[in-house]
């Protein structure tokens, strides 16, 4: 249940065009700066900042109290900026958090989920806090041991969709702390199509060589929108080459197997990889006349990586479709 919020304080934060000219804070970590979308609570220190070019994020939208887990989430792929601010003394966690929530609301952001102390989603909010523990430690709050941030209580979080210039940005605010310090983790995820790293469409000859040599062939030229199983139009050249090898070898039967990296919820990735494999088999049957009896779709999520998921390059290689000889 979302609680009503008071109007934003003028001294809280500024969003986009309403950004105020706050003087640089001397204690800011060198090389860091506020986002042009959302600035800091006045007097806060920016002590940690990182940027990732492409990540998968599941933004929680509802919490299941019986199972004690998020029961639904909004999947987003794109670039993520994370900043951790340490608030000035003399304020409460709720005061700092409400200021950000109020300012985003006033700026026209659409609230996806908001959770405050005592609300049904509080256990999930605590899990989000633990997920950010390393970044909070780098910001100078708590430690990074096995009981990290047990003493930082309460914690609040809220997620918003903020549209600016025709671009939707997803902003997550998570605030936690105690009398010794209050930290706010701000994530901004901007959806974008993944750069395929120069991977080219595998032609029919290359597919044939892979199937003959290893009984399988990794396909990187079939693309989908974030969190969806609808094949994008630029995938047509790759589908044509997949159909060509099947038409050339009339007896060939293959599995079409979808793979993901290890980002996000495993069950959701398993379902998505299965649906994407099914979409490819359906396209080969409908658009290219391949007999359905020669194809079988399967989703494998991140169970069979071909590279380490510790780097974006490795995760890009793991996000693939494979043709596997039956």
Q: What is the annotated CATH architecture of the largest domain?
A: 3-Layer(aba) Sandwich
- Radius of gyration based on Cα positions: 23 Å
CATH class of the largest domain, anyone?
Answer: Alpha Beta
Shape: elongated
Provide a descriptive summary of the structure in words.
- The protein has helices at 93-106, 122-131, 133-138, 204-214, 236-248, 266-288, 312-318; strands spanning 45-64, 69-86, 110-115, 155-164, 167-178, 181-191, 216-219, 254-259, 295-299, 320-325.
- The protein starts with 44 loop residues before the first strand and ends with a strand.
- The strands form 2 sheets. The protein has a 6-stranded antiparallel β-sheet, with helices on both faces. It has a 4-stranded mixed β-sheet with strand order 7-10-8-9.
- The protein is elongated, with a radius of gyration of 23 Å.
- The protein contains 7 helices and 10 strands.
- The protein has 326 residues and is an alpha+beta fold.
Name a few traits of the molecule.
2 domains, six-stranded antiparallel β-sheet, elongated, alpha+beta, disordered N terminus, 60s Ribosomal Protein L30, Chain: A, four-stranded mixed β-sheet, single chain, Protein Transport Mog1p, Chain A, 7 helices, 326 residues
Strand-helix topology:
Elements: E1 45-64, E2 69-86, H1 93-106, E3 110-115, H2 122-131, H3 133-138, E4 155-164, E5 167-178, E6 181-191, H4 204-214, E7 216-219, H5 236-248, E8 254-259, H6 266-288, E9 295-299, H7 312-318, E10 320-325
Parallel strand pairs: 8-9
Antiparallel strand pairs: 1-2, 2-6, 3-4, 4-5, 5-6, 7-10, 8-10
Helix pairs in contact: 4-5, 5-6
């Amino acid at each position: 249940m979302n609680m009503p919020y008071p109007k934003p304080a003028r001294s809280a934060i500024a969003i986009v065009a309403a950004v105020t000219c706050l003087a640089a804070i001397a204690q800011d970590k060198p090389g860091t700066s506020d986002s042009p979308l959302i600035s800091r609570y006045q007097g806060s220190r920016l002590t940690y900042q990182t940027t990732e070019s492409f990540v998968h994020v599941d933004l929680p939208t509802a919490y299941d109290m019986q199972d004690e887990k998020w029961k639904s989430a909004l999947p987003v792929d794109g670039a993520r900026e994370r900043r951790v601010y340490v608030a000035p003394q003399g304020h409460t966690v709720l005061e700092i958090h409400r200021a950000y929530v109020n300012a985003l609301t006033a700026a026209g952001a659409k609230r996806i989920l908001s959770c405050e102390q005592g609300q049904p989603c509080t256990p999930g909010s605590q899990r989000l806090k633990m997920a950010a523990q390393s970044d909070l430690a780098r910001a100078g709050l708590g430690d990074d041991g096995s009981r990290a941030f047990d003493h930082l209580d309460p914690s609040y979080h809220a997620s918003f969709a903020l549209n600016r210039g025709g671009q939707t940005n997803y902003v997550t605010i998570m605030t936690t702390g105690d009398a010794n310090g209050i930290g706010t983790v701000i994530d901004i995820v901007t959806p974008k199509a993944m750069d395929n790293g120069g991977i080219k469409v595998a032609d029919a000859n290359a597919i044939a060589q892979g199937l003959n040599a290893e009984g399988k062939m990794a396909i990187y030229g079939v693309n989908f929108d974030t969190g969806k199983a609808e094949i994008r139009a630029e995938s047509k050249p790759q589908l044509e080459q997949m159909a060509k090898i099947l038409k050339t070898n009339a007896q060939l039967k293959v599995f079409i197997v979808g793979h993901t990296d290890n980002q996000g919820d495993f069950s959701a990735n398993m379902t998505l990889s299965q649906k994407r494999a099914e979409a490819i088999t359906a396209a080969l049957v409908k658009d290219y006349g391949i007999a359905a009896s020669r194809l079988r779709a399967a989703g494998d999520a991140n169970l069979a990586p071909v590279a380490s998921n510790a780097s974006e390059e490795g995760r890009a290689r793991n996000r693939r479709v494979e043709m596997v000889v039956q």
